[in-house]
Amino acid sequence: MDVGFDGGFYATKAVSGDRVSHFPSFATKPAESLFSLNGHATVIIASEHGRHLVGDEAVKKGRTGARKESSAWIMSREYMSLFYTALSDLTDAYQVTVNCVAGLPLADFARDRAALRDRLLGTHRFTREGRAGQVIKVERATIVPQAWGPVLALLLDDMGKVVQPELVKQKVGVLDIGGHTVNYLSVDGLSDIPSETRGTERGAWNVVRTLRDWLDTSHPGLSRLPDHKLMSAIVEGVIFDAGEPVDLRPVVKDIVDDIGQEIVDTARQYWGGDAATMRSVMVCGGGAYLWGAHVKRAFRQAVVLDKPELANARGFYRFAANQTRQGR
């Protein structure tokens, strides 16, 4: 089975064929409900790495679990539970062999690629509660820079076949905007240009921190909401306090505009005048919902990808399918 896995700081995404896994990157100790009519939505993963409540229900119920901002989290027990949850979304087969392509932020890639590859390779045994146990053997794990996903998705189809060979002669840019990182990728002839490719660490979580500071004084009853809930509220533009809607757009506008300008200025700094030669600038990642318009105003050839949060995982899957197709 070919799998594209994108374990982001905000959300975990994985793709295999038509199956998609997408949930908050949040894992915590389970606290069993006394009564629930929504048991099917509860995901509890048990493995040698522990027993974790994962995803949306973890965000709702978790008080001690936390989102991660350190690159070291790929070595954590929670990270593996997120990986197992994604695999269990993509297949319920008892025993499966997997070819996995996963990504790392540009700033972490050179340092951590070997560690992540070694972490994913091998035989994994886990149980998603309510199902039979699963044994997944990852026989190949390829780690690529995260922002390459959209380029791979453009180059290949779901069978791993090259469908846009003209990319060999084109230059394209990618802005991958996540919760903690922003990746700036420049690709010419399917090779990245190191001098124009960088990663920074100022993403959507900075907006969450600004909102939390405001809630502490203006709506203290909401100040303890998990970061993932606040992020969803920022994207939606509204939050409810005692049943009354609170318009968040005026609150976060300045910081959103400030980071948007920083993203654009940094892209111009890295890409320079060569940005004009890019056939397209693809905007992906969950932050595309907040800053896609800023990028489009700055670069006429910019396009916000459909379902931008899944673009990397989709491209990784297609690259995995290409490897299988080539017999590698």
Enter the CATH topology name of the largest domain. Nucleotidyltransferase, domain 5
**Poorly predicted regions:** none
The rough form would be described as flat
Strand order of the largest sheet: 3-2-1-7-9-8-5-6-4
Average pLDDT number: 90
CATH architectural group of the largest domain: 2-Layer Sandwich
Helix count equals 9
Overall description:
The protein is an alpha+beta fold. It folds into two domains: 2-165 and 310-326, ATPase, nucleotide binding domain (Nucleotidyltransferase, domain 5, 2-Layer Sandwich), CATH 3.30.420; 182-304, 2-Layer Sandwich (Nucleotidyltransferase, domain 5). It has nine helices and 17 strands. It has helices at 56-61, 77-90, 106-120, 149-155, 205-218, 227-236, 249-271, 288-298, 311-326; strands spanning 2-7, 11-16, 19-24, 27-28, 43-47, 50-54, 95-104, 122-128, 134-145, 171-177, 182-188, 191-192, 198-200, 238-241, 244-247, 280-284, 302-304. Strands 3-2-1-7-9-8-5-6-4 form a nine-stranded mixed β-sheet. A hairpin with a 3-residue loop joins strand 1 (2-7) and strand 2 (11-16). Helix 5 (205-218) packs across helix 6, helix 5 runs antiparallel to helix 7 (249-271) and helix 7 (249-271) packs across helix 8 (288-298). The protein is flat. The protein starts with a strand and ends with a helix.
